User: What shape does this take?
Amino acid sequence: MFEPLKGVRVVDLSQVLAGPFATYQMALLGAEVLKIERPGEGDWTRAGMGAPGTAPGSVSMNYIAHNAGKKSLAIDLKVPGGLQAVHTLIRSADVMVENFKPGVAERLGLGFEAVKALRPDIVYCSISAFGQTGSLSARPAYDHVIQGMCGIMLTTGTPEAGPTKVGAPYIDYATGMNAAMAVMAGLLEVRRTGEAQRLDVAMLDTALSLMTTLMCVQQTNGTVPAQSGNEAWSGSPTSGAFQTADGVLMLAANNDAQRQRLFPAIGRADVLDDPRFSTAIAMAENAPALRELLTTTFAAAPALHWEDLLNRVAVPAAMVRRLDEAMAEPHTAERALTTPLNVQGAQAHAPNLVFVADGDRPKPREHDMSLGSDTETVLAEAGVDIQALRGAGAIP
Assistant: This one.
């Protein structure tokens, strides 16, 4: 079994998406993740937060997808006994993750210096919208706000349609993966130096890094990317989106070798002898004519016909699918991206690790996902006085 983080304890003080998704990756890799939640409420996503779809019982799919397999501890950080209990847990932890607005952790007594005093070799990861430094650091934000701010919405869609948001909270997810990578690098650095590591992961940094080439080109020569709709990144006239008889085909014939296979396969071998398209320069000069030729050809048959035909000759092509169609593909099932879990007597799917290691794709552990289900067990193992905490109102 692939468990590189087995034996690592993570105190997770994050909620909603980016932070919980980061610690979820750690749990899939074998870490013990202690999710600290507010008594009576828990993570905001327990109630759904508008996430689409249904969920079993009182636990939302939004919560399940980012927190399956973690241990839930219901502790009130604003009660002195609760804070002390979390301090006790931190002393036994290797990693702490928080996604409070910058400055809040310090006010709660959980800032880096306070935590470092408890555990001198801790990996301390802060996740925020804009980072721990910079003139915007105090601002709050969510994924769609960052999408609007980073520039991606004015590269997506068409000028006629206006700014277009990516349909999933991809910046949150990418930030979570970024944070998980940072934590694993931090663990290696602790092993090398023996010293605590402070990690600062920001959503805006991540969003801009997801457009690395565009960001660097803009900084180098001032070029601002335009909204390019469904056109290919390569700009090749033989790549992009083409309407077929029953749907849209995404085609990627970016180089000459691919084009040499493309045209005979679609019954247009004559194009290879046409002087208008004989060189890359000529093709660029006559791109509208070539696009029209391809558009007419592809409109004569269904998208799956072209997808199958072109992939047989090693020309990348795929029909545009809905999510349910993508999930229904045998290949998707063979790759085992999700696992069905029993959650409060009903079945719900949770994501597996995003990559395969030595043939293994780690899955979330079946675990009681009720709020505070592990509070007493974990705190008792840590030597904390449960009755005193309950009497102080720190735990339910």
